[in-house]
Specification:
Elements lengths: L6 H4 L40 E5 L8 H12 L4 E7 L5 H10 L5 E5 L17 H6 L2 H4 L4 H10 L5 E2 L10 H17 L7 E8 L1 H4 L1 H13 L5 E7 L13 H16 L3 E4 L3 H7 L6 E5 L2 H4 L18 E4 L4 E4 L4 H4 L13 H5 L6 H19 L6 H20 L11 H8 L1
Parallel strand pairs: 1-2, 1-8, 2-3, 4-5, 5-6, 6-7, 7-8
Antiparallel strand pairs: 9-10
């Protein structure tokens, strides 16, 4: 089949404005819309600046457009901004209105989350009836490629994904081949100027076990038509969304994946990785995703029959200087170090810390803003790969030294820092 030449072939330009469809509802006045970044620049997904993706939360998602505007002003040209929502989570009009509102985001992703129907060794809940209504392919366990792409277009996506079905570790080569065949079919269905990411979902064993990792990297290297990799890896217990993994085998797998992408001139995006995704910038990842709350910050194992997860009632505050969340009750151990502690000046900390009442919303917004600033801090415009690595390593070392004499206990203790300092 002959297909239209896409932007992923030519490597020029970005996503045409015409691909972004306006919502059918909520008419907006052109004069009141915030300025957006140029849609014809060449610095998104070309390796010159990292992509910082924010996953749409279930609560407070109406705060994201303003958050993106603030980040756009604060990070300048150092970081590209992206937003990611989940196709089964709402109707097309809802997705489209949200994406239209997030005008300061360079990249808009609407993830099919095909792994919910084809789970393999993942531990995830079955899709709800409502999710299957929005995404019938989850109920039918059939993934018509053309329909999936069109659904993402209708939702306002400007970086399209394949289905994201889970890879099967028991039939690794066949599973990888099927994912790439789906990718080839999607490439053939792209319209002029569109970009596609090969969307892979897998358990942590794919990065921890050398034979699976070798198969994964060999297949990705061979399939040169896929220049963007969107790779989601599920973390096993005792990982928490607010506590970064310390599994050195898992981190070594991330390193191998990121370094391979950089060496092969591919763009690796790591959704739902939080501050660990920031770490992988040192090894060559092109971007990562996080969110205001748990599911956006990490892709964790969950019990299929456990029912809805309850949000934690513990008040946690992200300390950028510590690269970690500290419980509010233990922050005095940090703030009393008046010589070393640097107070956050983001627009969310004022209302968050002013009184005794705790705001989950402002805590989440503060966290995302902080990680965006961390990203800009290690990847200034035009930074070379070795400079990014040195900046990440330097930030981790500074956090390690800052934490060394602090009596932090329990979940407030940044157990990952010494491991990160070693692996860097």
């Amino acid at each position: 089949m002959t297909r239209a030449k896409s932007d992923s072939d030519s490597g020029s330009g970005l996503f045409p404005v015409a691909l972004f469809r306006r919502p059918r509802r909520a008419a907006r006045k052109e004069s009141t819309r915030p300025a957006t970044r140029s849609a014809d620049g060449a610095s998104v997904l070309d390796g010159t600046r990292p992509l910082f993706i924010v996953h749409k939360p279930h609560q407070y998602h109406d705060e994201l457009p303003r958050l993106f505007e603030r980040l756009q002003a604060d990070v300048g040209d150092s970081v590209a901004l992206g937003v990611s929502s989940w196709l089964p989570s709402g109707a097309a009009t809802s997705h489209c209105e949200f994406n239209f509102a997030c005008e300061a985001a360079d990249v808009r992703i609407v993830d099919p989350r095909g792994y919910l129907a084809d789970r393999q060794d993942l531990r995830v809940k079955k899709p709800s009836a409502r999710a299957a209504q929005h995404a019938p392919y989850l109920r039918d366990e059939a993934f018509p490629v053309a329909s999936l792409l069109e659904a993402q277009r209708e939702c306002g996506a400007n970086l399209l994904l394949t289905s994201g079905r889970a890879l099967n570790p028991s039939a690794a080569l066949r599973s990888l081949a099927e994912a790439c065949d789906e990718g080839d079919e999607a490439m053939a269905a792209l319209k002029q100027g569109e970009r596609l990411a090969l969307n892979l979902t897998m358990s942590a064993e794919w990065l921890r076990r050398s034979e699976l990792l070798d198969d994964l990297l060999a297949e990705l290297i061979e399939k040169r038509q896929f220049r963007i990799w969107h790779v989601r890896v599920q973390w096993a217990p005792p990982a928490k969304s607010w506590h970064q993994p310390v599994d050195e085998e898992l981190l070594a797998g991330y390193r191998a994946l990121a370094e391979t992408a950089r060496n092969e001139e591919r763009r690796l995006l790591l959704p739902q990785t939080g501050v660990t995704g920031w770490l992988t910038l040192a090894w060559g990842a092109a971007g990562f995703g996080t969110g205001l709350f748990g599911t956006g910050q990490a892709f964790l194992e969950e019990d299929d029959d456990s029912g809805p997860r309850k949000n934690s009632t513990i008040e946690r505050y992200f300390e950028r200087q510590l690269l970690h969340f500290a419980e509010r009750t233990g922050r005095s151990e940090l703030t009393k170090d008046q010589e070393a502690y640097r107070k956050c000046t983001c627009p969310y900390c004022g209302p968050l810390l002013a009184g005794s009442a705790w705001s989950k919303k402002h805590a989440g917004l503060h966290y995302v803003h902080s990680v965006g600033m961390l990203t800009a801090g290690v990847a200034p415009a035009g930074a070379m790969p070795h400079e990014v690595h040195e900046a990440v390593a330097g930030t981790v070392r500074a956090a390690t030294l800052f934490a060394a004499d602090k009596r932090l206990t329990g979940q407030s203790a940044p157990a990952h820092l010494r491991t990160w300092d070693r692996v860097l």
